[in-house]
C-alpha cells in the first residue's frame, strides 16, 4: 500500500474567504490604503502557510491521520507478506499436488489476492474520506472565527496569502492578521481540549 500523502489544508484553506460585500473594482491597494487612513482597514489577509503550521488543531489532526495511515499500511504489509509466503509454499509443493488440488489452491490464492487488493482500496478511500471530513471541520472553525472578528473589527473581506500561489503579489504587513488569528484559534482549541478532558479525569478519579 502506498503511504497516504497528507493533503490537509492547502487546497481548502487557500479557498478561505470571508466577504461581507463584493470587492470594489478599483485597485485593491488603493482601497486598503484609503480604509487604513480612515481607521480600521476593510481588507486584510491571512498567510495560509503560517496558519496551518501554527494551528494546534490542524497539527493534532494531521498527526492522528498520519498515525492511522501508517498503522493501516503496516497491517496491510503484514497481510501481503503472509500471502506471499502462501504463494511460495504453493510453488514449492505444486509438483507433488494433483491437478485438482493445484487448481483449487490457485483459485483460493487468486481470491485472496483480490480480497487484499479490495482491502487496500477501501482503506485508502476511508482515509481520504476522513481527511476530507476533518479538513471541513478545520475550514469551518477558521471561517467561523473570521466572520466573528470581521463583524467586531469592521473587516469587509479577509483574503488568503500563500507564497508562490496567490493572487496577492504584495500586501502591507500591517494588514496581515495571521498571528492574532492563530493565537485566538489556539486559545479556543486549548479551552475545548480542557473541557473534553474534564469528564475523563473525573471518571478516572472516581475509579481510584
Q: Based on helices, strands and strand pairing, what is the structural class? A: mainly alpha
User: What is the CA-atom radius of gyration, in angstroms?
Assistant: 27 Å
SSE ordering:
HEHEHHHEH
Query: Can you tell me the residue ranges where pLDDT is under 50 for at least 5 consecutive residues?
Result: 1-37
Instruction: Categorize the overall geometry.
Output: elongated
Q: Write out the strand line-up for the largest beta sheet, numbering strands in chain order.
A: 1-3-2
Characterize the structure shown.
- The structure is a single chain.
- With 208 residues, this protein is mostly helical.
- The protein has one domain.
- Helices cover 70% and strands 6% of the residues.
- The protein has six helices and three strands; from the N terminus they run αβαβαααβα.
- A three-stranded mixed β-sheet has the order 1-3-2.
- Helix 3 packs parallel to helix 6 and helix 4 packs antiparallel against helix 5.
Descriptive tags:
coiled coil; mainly alpha; three-stranded mixed sheet; 208 residues; Skp_dom_sf
List the helices and strands and how they pair.
Layout: H1 10-14, E1 18-19, H2 28-38, E2 43-47, H3 48-54, H4 56-93, H5 99-153, E3 157-161, H6 178-207
Parallel strand pairs: 2-3
Antiparallel strand pairs: 1-3
Helix pairs in contact: 3-6, 4-5
Amino acid at each position: 500500500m502506498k503511504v497516504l500523502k497528507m493533503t490537509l489544508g492547502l487546497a481548502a484553506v487557500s479557498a478561505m474567504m470571508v466577504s461581507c460585500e463584493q470587492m470594489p473594482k478599483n485597485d485593491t491597494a488603493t482601497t486598503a490604503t484609503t480604509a487604513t487612513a480612515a481607521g480600521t482597514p476593510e481588507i486584510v489577509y491571512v498567510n495560509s502557510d503560517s496558519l496551518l503550521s501554527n494551528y494546534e488543531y490542524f497539527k493534532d489532526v494531521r498527526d492522528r491521520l498520519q498515525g492511522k495511515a501508517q498503522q493501516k499500511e503496516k497491517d496491510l504489509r503484514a497481510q501481503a507478506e503472509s500471502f506471499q509466503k502462501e504463494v511460495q509454499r504453493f510453488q514449492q509443493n505444486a509438483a507433488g499436488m494433483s491437478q485438482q488440488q493445484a487448481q483449487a489452491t490457485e483459485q483460493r490464492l487468486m481470491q485472496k489476492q483480490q480480497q487484499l487488493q479490495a482491502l487496500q482500496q477501501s482503506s485508502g478511500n476511508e482515509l481520504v474520506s476522513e481527511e476530507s471530513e476533518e479538513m471541513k471541520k478545520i475550514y469551518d472553525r477558521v471561517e467561523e472565527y473570521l466572520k466573528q472578528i470581521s463583524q467586531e473589527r469592521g473587516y469587509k473581506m479577509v483574503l488568503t496569502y500563500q507564497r508562490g500561489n496567490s493572487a496577492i503579489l504584495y500586501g502591507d504587513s500591517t494588514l496581515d492578521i495571521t498571528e492574532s488569528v492563530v493565537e485566538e484559534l489556539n486559545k479556543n482549541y486549548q479551552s475545548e481540549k480542557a473541557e473534553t478532558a474534564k469528564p475523563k479525569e473525573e471518571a478516572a478519579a472516581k475509579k481510584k
